[in-house]
Design brief:
Blueprint (H helix, E strand, L loop, with lengths): L7 H4 L8 H16 L7 H6 L7 H9 L5 H12 L7 E10 L9 E5 L4 E15 L2 E10 L2 H7 L6 H12 L7 E4 L6 H6 L4 E4 L5 E4 L2 E4 H7 L6 E7 L2 E13 L3 E9 L8 E5 L5 H8 L4 H12 L10 H24 L2 H6 L3 H27 L2 H12 L1
Parallel strand pairs: 1-5, 5-6
Antiparallel strand pairs: 1-3, 2-3, 3-4, 6-12, 7-8, 7-10, 9-10, 10-11, 11-12
């Protein structure tokens, strides 16, 4: 069923970006990200997977010393794998990658909302494109605190400034219908930089102009008459909302926007509030905003199956050079899935399933190699000795 399952033909398209030795490392590293043991996808563990391995320092130099351009790698990845380029949504978000090593460049303590506490982490800003069934991670850049940037001799950039730069880069490749972002990115500077429609969540402490004064969004929500809401059945992430309304209002720092207010219960003071410069129906606005959560699935897949956060590198440049091969591994798997027949594709729905099948395929190659070796040397003991010698 999976006889033609291989990422090698697609990887060959990136050969010219590397020297011969560094391309061998690239092929091994990406296979290691895909087929390596979960929670063990660091340089040492990936290097140990291969019978012809050298000292792990050689693989480490691939990320820290070898002269290959991660931005050019990403450029070719996007040119190779982007199919739909018009329509869809472009999402900007960030992800915390928790680390234990305080000596890693760029780590700092930031508040993790899922854990409700500060954690030592890297904070990576991403852009992600969704168009129908197609998803494509676009660009990334680590957010570095002022004191970290000063030590590295670099210019400090806020997350908003990074997001603006990444969105501009993305628009060189695609023409999305809408830009999506979470409440943290709803800033005057970012919104003014956009020449596209946008939808964002709104923090309820943001101020709106109502009755000749500024008031928090949460106070406005409480003041909306019950009869203004109408019943709906909408699920956002894992939460269901039963009531919805909208109004056009001035949001401080942003100017006139359309607010969409969703509640679980009609008498509840709690609500999720969206803002947009679109004049769409509330159902269309909510349906489009829900696509923002595709990026959460991407984070989960890359963290669980592709070693997104499992690097153990000290230098920020090496860390960035780890992250872009993760993007490439994800795109290779997505492309591989699209090339499969309908029946086989239906059996491989997730990134995790693709990783497991490729791992089994590699294991079958190893079994075939040992059988061929047995026919060559004629002794099981000799085969075992050769394998042990390779492993050592």
């Amino acid at each position: 069923m999976f006889a033609n399952l291989s990422i090698i033909p697609s990887l060959a398209k990136f050969r010219s970006l590397f020297t011969k030795p560094s391309f061998k490392h690239a092929v091994k590293y990406i296979h290691g990200l895909i087929a390596g043991e979960r929670k063990r996808k660091n340089v040492k563990s990936i290097n140990d997977m291969f019978l012809d391995r050298k000292d792990q320092s050689s693989m480490n130099r691939f990320l820290t010393k070898y002269r290959w351009d991660e931005n050019e790698l990403n450029h070719r990845r996007l040119r190779t794998f982007l199919i739909r380029k018009n329509g869809g949504v472009l999402i900007v978000d960030d992800s915390l990658i928790e680390k234990s090593g305080k000596r890693m460049e760029g780590v700092g303590f930031l508040f993790d909302h899922s854990k409700h506490k500060n954690i030592l982490c890297h904070n990576i800003v991403f852009t992600h494109y969704v168009n129908g069934n197609e998803q494509m991670p676009m660009h990334l850049e680590p957010y570095l605190k002022k004191e970290v940037v000063k030590d590295l001799g670099k210019k400090f950039k806020t997350k908003i400034e990074i997001a603006i730069e990444l969105l501009k880069k993305g628009l060189n490749y695609i023409n999305p219908s809408v830009i999506l972002f979470d409440a943290w990115y709803l800033a005057k500077k970012l919104v003014k930089s956009l020449k596209k429609p946008w939808i964002s969540r709104v923090k309820t402490n943001r101020l709106v102009w109502q009755k000749d004064s500024w008031m928090p969004v949460k106070k406005l929500v409480r003041a909306i008459a019950i009869e203004k809401f109408r019943p709906v059945d909408i699920k956002i992430s894992d939460k269901k909302y039963r009531w919805i309304t909208s109004l056009t209002i001035k949001l401080k720092g942003i100017d006139k926007v359309k607010l969409v207010v969703l509640k679980k219960k009609i008498n509840s003071v709690k609500a999720i509030v969206l803002a947009t410069n679109l004049e769409w129906s509330v159902q269309s606005i909510v349906k489009t905003y829900k696509k923002r959560f595709c990026i959460d699935v991407f984070y989960r897949d890359c963290k669980q199956y592709l070693g997104l956060g499992e690097y153990q590198l000290r230098k920020i440049q090496g860390i960035v050079k780890h992250l872009f091969p993760v993007f490439l591994a994800y795109s290779l798997l997505k492309s591989l899935k699209q090339s499969l027949s309908g029946f086989v594709k239906s059996k491989l729905r997730t990134i995790g399933q693709l990783c497991r099948v490729l791992k089994q395929k590699i294991l079958s190659y190893f079994v075939g190699w040992t059988i061929g070796l047995f026919h060559k040397v004629g002794s099981v003991d000799k085969v075992i000795n050769i394998v042990i010698e390779c492993l050592n």
